[in-house]
Write a structure and sequence with these properties.
Blueprint lengths: L1 H12 L2 H4 L6 H18 L3 H8 L8 H13 L3 E2 L2 E2 L1 H12 L1 H11 L7 H15 L6
Antiparallel strand pairs: 1-2
Helix pairs in contact: 1-3, 1-4, 3-5, 5-8, 6-7, 7-8
InterPro entries: PBP/GOBP, PBP_GOBP_sf
GO biological process, one term: sensory perception of smell
Protein name: (Mediterranean fruit fly) hypothetical protein
Length: 137
């Protein structure tokens, strides 16, 4: 179960193709596992649907999966008080794709708005994934 939850969370943090390139410390893996488990519990999102969405398959996405995205983004510090924390996103995702590319992606995606906060979080996830399959928020 622990590995399964880590895999689900990492799907939202970094696309499956990039996971081997991202070397997380044991401490980071534990943190991501704990945050993902908290968000699954808090939102009631189906683990299978979260995993599929992390791979770009949105056929099972419902409001709970969208709220999982919001929850995880908040716990990772990407969203604070309902606003994107661009510096936190740059610091985290810039390591994956490079600072200039993440700034270009932010310029395109950070204005995305959904019907509500959960929908907005999920639309941001989709935009980042569409712009570079190696990153997701």
């Amino acid at each position: 179960m622990k590995f399964f939850t880590v895999a689900i969370v990492l799907a939202f943090v970094a696309a499956a193709a990039a996971q081997e390139l991202i070397k997380l410390t044991d401490e980071q893996k534990q943190k991501v596992h704990a945050l993902g488990a908290e968000c699954i519990k808090e939102t009631g999102a189906a683990e299978e649907a979260v995993r599929a969405a992390g791979k770009g398959d949105y056929s099972q996405v419902d409001g709970k999966v969208k709220c999982f995205a919001k929850c995880l983004q908040g716990k990772l510090g990407y969203v604070e008080d309902g606003k994107l924390n661009e510096a936190a996103i740059q610091a985290s995702l810039g390591k994956i794709v490079g600072d200039e590319q993440i700034k270009a992606i932010q310029a395109k995606c950070n204005g995305v708005k959904g019907a509500d906060d959960c929908d907005t979080a999920f639309e941001l996830h989709k935009c980042y994934l569409a712009e570079n399959a190696n990153i997701q928020i």
